Amino acid sequence: MSKTHKFVGIPNQSILMKLFKTLLLFLFLIPHLLFAQSELQADLALPYLVRQPNKKSVHTPVLILMHGYGSNEADLFDLKDNLPQNFLIISLRAPMPMGNNSYQWFGMEMTDGKMLGNRIDIANSVAKVKAMIPAIVKKYKADAAQVYLSGFSQGGMMSFEVGLTSPELLKGIAPLSGKIFEPLKAQVKVTAAFKKLRIFIGHGDADNRVAYSFATEANRYLKEMNLNPEFHTYKQMGHSINQDELADLNKWLNQP
């Protein structure tokens, strides 16, 4: 019995040791695999981070995110776990470097006594974002009829710029703490796609960087254009995004 026990015991220890080593290797690789999924992509018009949906289908919806002034693609990407898991999430990096891993979509300038975005910068950035939309749909085999664009601060302003001038590329836009620049209005054309564009506006009433009044002005203008934006005010919220806003955004995105 002792010899039989010895014969059986050695292989079992060997198998357990191999399994243990395999488990250690797997645990070691997990963070690297997760990091690889969030690795900066640079194969399209703008660098970006991507989070795949939890379940792929031929009707995978897409949410494209645009960060604010002086930030980068990692900023809004940190919110990915608080966004619908069935969405493909793409977080873009603005094309204009500012140093120290900071970027902007456009520079600001005084025009007729008002602080406005530089229209040349805006046009260049808008063209790049517009080029990204069909490219993302093609590369990730997503649903071209379910593409949403959202941004915070400067990114919110970009959401208006892209969505109101090329509504045929999008199902909806969700500008957060943004504004509509007056020169944009001259570029807006009321088309069939424009009339169908879904819009979510979120803004804190204590915002001291992009005034809350810009949100109410945008809401009023869009209603004058016979659109019906979903307008949300967040009491005592400054220039930021809170959990209530994310919850409302999730509900809006999940509506048919």
Your description of this structure?
With 256 residues, this protein is an alpha/beta fold. It folds into two domains: 1-37; 41-253, Alpha/Beta hydrolase fold, catalytic domain (Rossmann fold, 3-Layer(aba) Sandwich), CATH 3.40.50.1820. It is 42% helix and 20% strand. The chain has eight helices and eleven strands. The strands form three sheets. A seven-stranded mixed sheet has the order 1-3-2-8-9-10-11, sandwiched between helices. The longest helix has 36 residues, at 2-37. The N and C termini lie far apart (70 Å). The model is unreliable at 1-11 and 19-37 (pLDDT under 50).
The chain-level structural class is alpha/beta
Q: Please trace the helix and strand order, writing H or E for each element.
A: HEEHEEEEEHEHEHHEHEH
Sheet with the most strands: spatial strand order: 1-3-2-8-9-10-11
- Rounded to the nearest angstrom, the radius of gyration is 23 Å
The number of distinct β-strands equals 11
Principal-axis shape equals: globular
Q: How many structural units, i.e. domains?
A: 2
Question: How large is the count of helical segments?
Answer: 8
Attribute tags:
single chain; 256 residues; alpha/beta; Rossmann fold; 2 domains; seven-stranded mixed β-sheet; two-stranded antiparallel ribbon; 8 helices; globular; disordered N terminus
Short characterization:
The protein is α/β, with parallel strands linked by helices. The protein contains 8 helices and 11 strands.
